[in-house]
Amino acid sequence: MPTAHSVVTTEGPRVPEGLPAPGRCLVMGILNVTPDSFSDGGRYADTSRAVARGLELAAQGADLVDVGGESTRPGARPVGLEEELARTVPVVRELARAGVLTSVDTMHAGVARAAVEAGAGLVNDVSGGLADPAMARTVAGLGVPYVAMHWRAPSHEMDRRAHYGDVVADVTAELGTRLWRLVDEGVDPARVVLDPGLGFAKRPEHDWALLAGLAELRELGFPLLVGASRKRFIGAALAAGGAGDVPPAGRDVATAAVSALAAAAGAFCVRVHDVPASLDAVRMAAAYTEHLGRT
Ligand code: PMM
């Protein structure tokens, strides 16, 4: 459902300045420099291991590497600003020095600023500017692309907020409202990427409805990022299909399938742990969509 403010486009979404345009859905590799993220917590918790993993993701073909220093899994403990800075900034700096395009996954304006000053080329904010009132103006001043995700509440209470009438219409309307608040505060709409926030105040049925409803979200007229990797709704669908209880690290093939679906539905970028599988998946989606309507 387009909102009063929506810009309906018939073409594919434009690429925000500063991001690559390979002619297919972008693949963002996840680098969680945290002890407690839900599927890879602790693996890259120190700077040198994190940098090595970031270089590996880039060598595998990631279009950009998303460096996060605070876990957003349900119930995760908040991290102090100093700790988040210490986890992310040195990693961003080293990767930028090596020529790797990085984004910083943060809800905090201070971290966003420090990371961009250290070389990050994009700010990825799962709260879409709601968690830190200084974020919108900071991002406006930094002049980098900004991912604004649909978010309703901090991790400890988001599961209680997973109530919708029509989830696709509600998320589209809430993202539209958020977007125009950001623009009011100076964020350049040409630099904005929107994200439905799979798993954030969503139950598995909401996540599937949003994936199936990407076309409606695209009516907002902005590039869409989809973060499905290893999430609970993928585990739920595997279980429902007879695969049993598959732990997060065993969900990468299924994640790649979701990447293909998202890319074929017009996603601009997918955010994943396993880059090679999703890169092949989005390549297949590009070949497929090129031939849609020709037969
Ligand atoms: N999901 C997580 C973290 N950051 N960023 C965006 N833009 N979209 C997401 O869906 C998203 C995100 C949580 O997943 P992780 O703990 O595996 O990183």
Textual characterization of the structure:
The protein is of the alpha/beta class. It has a single domain, classed as TIM Barrel (Alpha-Beta Barrel). The chain is 41% helix and 12% strand. It has eleven helices and eight strands. The protein has helices spanning 47-59, 81-97, 109-117, 135-142, 155-158, 167-184, 204-212, 214-218, 232-240, 252-264, 275-291, and strands at residues 26-32, 64-68, 102-105, 122-125, 146-149, 192-195, 225-226, 269-272. An eight-stranded parallel β-sheet has the order 6-5-4-3-2-1-8-7. Strand 4 (122-125), helix 4 (135-142) and strand 5 form a beta-alpha-beta unit. Helix 1 crosses helix 2 and helix 10 runs parallel beside helix 11. The longest helix has 18 residues, at 167-184. It is globular and about 45 Å long. The two termini are 30 Å apart. The relative contact order is 0.15. Mean pLDDT is 92; it is low at 1-10. The chain binds pterin-6-yl-methyl-monophosphate. Pterin-6-yl-methyl-monophosphate binds next to strand 1 and strand 5.
